[in-house]
């Protein structure tokens, strides 16, 4: 037994035993490997954590599709899609044409928690089915839990067509106006 | 022959020793109680969920384009697909329910106290994982409720200060709810969280073995850090019995009843959904979460707006934090619920609050009835013998969609007060003011009603009372004879 002990503690000239050097070196090597392994994995999984505003001009249709003093539902295909998105990339929005080239384009999502608001022509209100948020025809908050008026899209008229600047789900942190 | 084979196997893999240190470990005889069956019941539910989940994964297509279609295929084409979906759905309901019972029992019996703090904490993490499974599972049922549920989740993330936009992106894995969102939740539901649960259950069970099963609490028997471990060891020595076979009987019976219950519920009630396809352009929908999140859903509607963001973001971490530190706040002392009125009352209060909120969530009186204006009839006694002006007012009330929020004769929305008897509560002037300017939770209708419409509407509303009741009258005006 004593012989074994002395073998295990065979020291190098510097005073570090061969065994503790191997363990220490092994731990250090694995730590390096772990870091090199973690960089691509964390970078891959959390790549979407790097927020970037993605917006693009999207055509909603010819202007005469939206009669004056009316609010109509329009849909567009989100410009940032994968081929396997299915129907989820078809995004609806409410287009209110005041008169002439004056428009208001509202996101479908309630500013409270994102449920789809519905337009009621006769009472001139948007009603939300989830928690009872209500907005006036111009998108301003009327009652209920919403903290602000409806999200609006920037729009432009080009060659008689209505375009909006869109591409991301509007929330309080990512409003469509920005 | 068989015996020698068994002995050979035992010598190689030490089964007897493994058995003695696990399933055969000594438990207090008092732990052989019907109150102690919920832990094993929850584990059984989890195992069932793994089995039925794997079966579903054979067929389910985890892509945004195909998921909904594959669910419909499972329901109608795949032999017994509907039944496996139903078992998975009811299994999840049972798992949440039995886990809750387990937690309540552990809390009331003081089983979280010294020296079982870590058992409780690992259980709390398991609770969070199970709720995570419930939420992600609801997303995998990729229908319109799942789509808008994701929207609600993203909107909550969007309220986090400073990093809201990043969290929205992280949750959705992109700018909108789409393909990568579903893939993300599929990975969480099928790989990440179940893996965590398996690891945590191992820790939880290991702690049950090292810290021992809690003895049935006796009133007046206090836990002291100095003496408890010795007392427990003495108890085990005096009246300890091996868990298998002496204390497992009730667990076995409960397990069988549980499986039969899940099978029966699945057979009778069938699978849940999918509801309409996850197509955001189909906006005629009223999204509702599964029952475990109905109370939260109700809370979102009922919290005052100025408190909402604060409570949404601050209250859950505080509540979870409290759960985690509970064994350190009251780690010693009385265990029996008979001597812990505050503990019993807290459980009753929490159950009551969650129960009432969930009930409100199912009826959601704050949501407008979107079809009431065109679909709900006007009660006949409100139009019988009325003047043309009043009848015109009845039409205005219907056409201006008042009934989406106000009911008449029990039909219509419940967002605002029922209008039966409104004539006895508000005078003519007050009615006009309320209609035109709104107030309380009511939008102003001034821009949407022409003066003659207001006149007619208010004339009609003044008839909304029982024949023997008189209209409300302005107390500052001497009583004038009015209709």
Q: Are there runs of chain B of 5+ residues with pLDDT below 50, and where?
A: none
Helix content of chain B: 55-70%
**Backbone CA Rg of chain B:** 30 Å
Low-confidence runs of chain A: none
Question: What is the overall silhouette of chain A?
Answer: elongated
Structural class of the secondary elements of chain B? Answer: mainly alpha
Query: Biggest interface in this structure?
Result: A-B, 56 and 71 residues
Based on CA atoms alone, the radius of gyration of chain A comes out at: 30 Å
Strand content of chain A: 25-35%
Strand order of the largest sheet of chain B: 1-3
Q: β content of chain B, as a range?
A: under 5%
* Strand ordering within the main sheet of chain A: 1-10-9-4-3-2
Q: Cα distance, first to last residue of chain B?
A: 103 Å
Q: Average the pLDDT over all residues of chain A and give the rounded result.
A: 86
Number of distinct helices of chain B: 20
Shape assignment of chain B: elongated
Percent in helix of chain A: 10-25%
Q: Tell me about the biggest sheet of chain A?
A: 6 strands, antiparallel
- Number of beta-strand segments of chain A: 10
Determine the oligomeric state from the structure: heterodimer
Helix-and-strand structural type of chain A? alpha+beta
Topology of this structure?
The complex is a heterodimer of chains A (178) and B (483).
Chain A: H1 2-8, H2 18-45, E1 56-62, E2 70-77, E3 90-97, E4 103-107, E5 118-120, E6 125-127, E7 134-136, E8 141-143, E9 152-158, E10 161-166
Antiparallel strand pairs in A: 1-10, 2-3, 3-4, 4-9, 5-6, 6-7, 7-8, 9-10
Chain B: H1 2-13, H2 15-21, E1 26-28, H3 38-59, H4 67-76, H5 81-108, H6 117-140, H7 144-157, H8 164-172, H9 179-211, E2 222-223, H10 228-239, E3 240-242, H11 243-247, H12 249-269, H13 294-302, H14 305-329, E4 333-334, H15 341-363, H16 372-375, H17 388-399, H18 422-425, H19 428-437, H20 451-461
Antiparallel strand pairs in B: 1-3, 2-4
């Amino acid at each position: 037994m004593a012989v074994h002990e002395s073998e295990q503690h065979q020291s190098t000239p510097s005073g570090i035993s061969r065994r503790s050097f191997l363990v220490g070196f092994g731990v250090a090597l694995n730590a390096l490997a772990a870091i090199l392994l973690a960089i691509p994995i964390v970078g891959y999984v959390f790549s979407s954590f790097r927020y970037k505003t993605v917006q693009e001009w999207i055509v909603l249709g010819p202007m005469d599709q939206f009669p004056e003093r009316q609010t109509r539902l329009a849909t567009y295909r989100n410009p940032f899609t994968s081929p396997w998105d299915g129907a989820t990339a078809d995004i609806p929005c409410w287009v209110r044409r005041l008169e002439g080239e004056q428009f208001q384009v509202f996101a479908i999502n309630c500013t409270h928690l994102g449920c789809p608001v519905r337009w009621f022509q006769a009472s001139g209100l948007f009603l939300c089915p989830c928690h009872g948020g209500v907005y006036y025809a111009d998108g301003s908050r009327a009652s209920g839990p919403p903290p602000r008026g409806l999200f609006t899209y920037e729009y432009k008229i080009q060659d008689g067509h209505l375009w909006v600047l869109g591409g991301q789900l509007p929330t309080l942190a990512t409003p469509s106006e920005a | 022959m068989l015996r020698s084979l068994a002995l050979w196997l035992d010598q190689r893999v030490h089964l007897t020793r493994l058995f003695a240190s696990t399933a055969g470990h000594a438990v207090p005889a008092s732990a052989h109680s019907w109150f102690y069956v919920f832990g094993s019941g929850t584990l059984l539910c989890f195992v069932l969920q793994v089995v039925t989940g794997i079966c579903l994964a054979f067929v389910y297509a985890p892509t945004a384009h195909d998921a909904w279609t594959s669910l419909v295929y499972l329901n109608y084409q795949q032999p017994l697909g509907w039944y496996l979906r139903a078992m998975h759905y009811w299994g999840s309901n049972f798992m949440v329910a039995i886990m809750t019972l387990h937690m309540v029992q552990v809390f009331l019996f003081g089983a979280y106290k010294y020296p079982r703090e870590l058992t409780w904490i690992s259980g709390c993490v398991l609770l969070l994982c199970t709720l995570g499974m419930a939420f992600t599972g609801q997303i995998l049922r990729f229908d319109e409720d799942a789509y808008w549920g994701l929207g609600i989740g993203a909107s909550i993330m969007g309220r986090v200060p400073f990093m809201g936009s990043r969290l929205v992106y992280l949750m959705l894995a992109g700018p909108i709810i789409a393909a990568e969102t579903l893939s993300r939740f599929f990975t969480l539901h099928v790989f990440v969280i179940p893996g965590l649960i398996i690891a945590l259950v191992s820790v939880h069970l290991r702690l049950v073995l090292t810290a021992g099963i809690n003895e049935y609490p006796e009133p007046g028997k206090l836990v002291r850090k100095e003496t408890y471990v010795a007392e427990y060891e003495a108890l085990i020595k005096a009246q300890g019995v091996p868990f298998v076979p002496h204390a497992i009987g009730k667990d076995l019976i409960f397990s069988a009843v549980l499986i039969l219950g899940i099978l029966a519920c699945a057979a009778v009630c069938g699978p849940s959904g999918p509801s309409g396809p996850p197509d955001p352009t189909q906006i005629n929908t009223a999204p509702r979460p599964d029952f475990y999140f109905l109370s939260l859903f109700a809370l979102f509607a009922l919290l005052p707006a100025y408190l909402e963001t604060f409570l949404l973001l601050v209250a859950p971490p505080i509540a979870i934090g409290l759960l985690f530190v509970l064994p350190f706040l009251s780690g010693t002392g009385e265990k029996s619920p008979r001597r812990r009125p505050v503990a019993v009352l807290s459980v009753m209060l929490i159950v009551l609050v969650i129960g009432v909120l969930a009930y409100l969530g199912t009826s959601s009186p704050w949501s407008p009835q979107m079809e009431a204006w065109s679909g709900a009839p006007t009660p006949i006694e409100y139009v019988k013998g009325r003047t043309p002006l009043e009848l015109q007012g009845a039409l205005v009330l219907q056409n201006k969609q008042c009934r989406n929020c106000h009911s008449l004769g029990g039909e219509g929305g419940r967002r605002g007060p029922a209008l039966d008897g409104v004539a006895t509560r508000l005078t003519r002037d007050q009615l006009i003011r309320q209609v035109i300017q709104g107030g309380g939770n009511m939008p102003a209708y001034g821009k949407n009603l022409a003066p003659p419409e207001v006149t007619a509407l208010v004339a009609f509303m003044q008839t909304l009372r029982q024949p023997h009741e008189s209209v409300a009258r302005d107390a500052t005006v001497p009583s004038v004879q009015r209709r």
